[in-house]
Design brief:
It is a single chain. Helix content is about 25%, strand content about 25%. Strands 3-4-2-1-14-13 form a six-stranded mixed β-sheet. A six-stranded mixed β-sheet has the order 5-6-7-8-12-9. A two-stranded antiparallel sheet has the order 10-11. By secondary structure, it is of the alpha+beta class. Helix 3 runs parallel beside helix 5. It comes from Erythrobacter neustonensis.
């Protein structure tokens, strides 16, 4: 069972690129972030045409998450929860579309797009930390139920110095602040497994390259897209990886897909 995450950075702009990746790699489950569309604008029919069912939690112009399941391979998708019950940055904001949870063939899939937190310090960074604290609570609930679970998506956290091409270049960014890293480390300390880190303990694996300053061409990237596994899933992990080549294609997202394969 191959489960993948992909920050698509605008589903309408990247739709041909996304469909190409789905048909090339055929994950059983694909979690998407930054779909950047309201619910009524989600291109569900395009995914149905290639054999994927979908659920989504959209928001106009910003954020947005979705989960796709390969129905041709017999996978079924059942929504469990949308949102974590956290208000936006400004008082009176509706909850931002950043979290979606579903069951796929006995595995709980939690797709997330964690707040960036910049500029730091400020209210957006405060919101980021509050969001991470609420995420930890939800993950603890899943843990207590002993549900085989995969929590994955764009965490907007660079966990270690060897997860970035240049520590100096990112040292003032919210993605690398001690508070952000500590909040991520607490998730792992609770017993969750970072799939990519487990297979690449020395780091040096990137999932994001900025559009600016020739970052892709110079391989100036960092790792912020993560897959966390409950013990029930960690024991079933056969392989994981990063589909780096898709970042180099025309009109690509600034992220690239990340995946894990679990034994049935």
């Amino acid at each position: 069972m191959k489960i993948a995450t992909f920050n698509i950075n605008g589903i309408k702009a990247r739709l041909p690129h996304l469909v190409e990746w789905l048909e090339d790699t055929r994950p059983a489950v694909a979690c998407l972030q930054e779909i950047k569309t309201q619910d009524e604008g989600f291109p569900a029919a395009d995914f149905e045409a290639i054999g994927y069912s979908a659920i989504w939690h959209g928001q106009k112009s910003f954020n947005g998450v979705a989960i796709l399941a390969d129905t041709r391979a017999g996978h079924t998708l059942t929504e469990v929860q949308r949102g974590l019950g956290i208000a936006g940055v400004n008082e009176g904001d509706d909850e931002q579309a950043r979290y979606l949870e579903a069951d796929v063939d006995g595995v709980r899939i939690a797709c997330l797009y964690l707040p960036n937190g910049n500029p730091h310090p400020g209210p957006k960074f405060t919101y980021k930390l509050a969001w991470m604290a609420r995420l930890r609570e939800r993950m603890a609930e899943l843990w207590a139920q002993e549900i085989p679970a995969v929590v994955l998506g764009d965490f907007n956290v660079i966990p270690h110095d060897d997860d970035v091409w240049s520590v100096k270049a990112m040292q003032n960014d919210a993605l690398m602040q001690p508070e952000s890293r500590a909040a991520y480390a607490r998730l792992l300390a609770d017993g969750w497994t970072d799939a990519i880190r487990t297979h690449n303990p020395r780091g040096g694996v990137w999932t994001y390259w900025d559009y600016q300053a020739g970052a892709w061409q110079r391989d100036h990237g960092f790792r912020i897209d993560h897959i966390l596994l409950s013990p029930e899933c960690a024991d079933r992990m056969e392989a994981c990886g990063v589909d780096k080549a898709y970042r180099g294609r025309e009109k690509s997202s600034d992220h690239t897909p990340v995946w894990v394969r679990l034994s049935l």
